[in-house]
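User: I'm preparing a small set of examples for a lab meeting where we compare how different chains pack in three dimensions. I only have the primary sequence for this one, and I'd like the structure in C-alpha cell form so I can line it up with the others. Please keep the answer compact; I'll paste it straight into my notes.
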Amino acid sequence: MAVEIRKFNKGFHYPQYFETAITPQLLVLLLTAAEAAIDKWHTGKQVNITFTANHFKTHYLKHLDMLLKWEEFSKNLMQACKRVRTDLLQAVRQNTMKPDDKITSAADELLNDDFAASEH
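Assistant: Understood. Below is the C-alpha cell output for the 120-residue chain.
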C-alpha cells in the first residue's frame, strides 16, 4: 500500500506545485495534538482525553496566534519561523516511504542558523 500511495500522490511527484513549507495551521494542529498527548498524563497517571475541537480549540487558536505573531515579527529579519516550517516539510518529504532505519529526524534537518535566528 505504501508504494501505491507514492505512485499516485501528486504532491510527492510534483512538490514544486504545492506548499514550500508546512502551513502554520498544520504545524499548530500537530503541536496541539502533542499537547493533548502530554495532557493525558497531567495527573501522573494516564487519563483518556478525547482530542476534539470543543476541548482544544482555545489551545489551537492561542498557539496559532503566537506562531503568526512570530512569523510576522521575523519576516523582515531572519525569517526563522518560515525557515523552520520549510525545513520541517523538507524533512517530511525526504523521509516519505523510507524504511525506519533510514529516517532522519527533523532536528537533523534544522540548521543552527534557524535556532540562532529565533534568539535575536
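A couple of notes for your slides: Residues 53 and 63 are 14 Å apart (CA to CA). The two ends are 45 Å apart (CA to CA).

User: Perfect, thanks.
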